[in-house]
Design goal:
By secondary structure, the chain is an alpha/beta fold. It is built from six helices and five strands. About 40% of the residues lie in helices and about 20% in strands. Helix 5 links the parallel strand 4 and strand 5. The N and C termini lie far apart (about 40 Å).
Length: about 150
Amino acid sequence: MSEKGLYARKLAEGSLDPGAINRIIKFMSDKGMSCSKEEGEEIKKKTPYNTKLPVYTVRGDKSWQGLAVGFPGTKDDLTTENVGTPWLRLILYPILKMFKQFSDDHDVKIRCLYLMGSCFNDVFLRKFDFLKFVVPNVIVLTDDLLKCHDK
């Protein structure tokens, strides 16, 4: 398998470190938001893509409620050498479909799509950028940002 598929393989194996996502979830909770993890069967009902990425429903202030998708792993795991553009494209459309379905299914308006991870490079950010045309608020939260906040 090429190095570009390394992240997808590690994700499928469950061998990526969830530490950054856990710290971001804790930060959100400390700010008064509740993050409930969506389970695999529920996610399968919302999108045909069987993603191993952790998905959370975020509740709290109406303006900040939404769907959060985590990208486990370290900064080194989330490099362009390990994550290929085709895989990113493969997951972003199902994430959009899942966001729409969650928005339709929940009793409150879901306005935000949170993308969480250790650190995203410019390739990730360019791919995430297209989401802003169909999602009211795309919010990228990284472990690097939390470290800046803590200082």
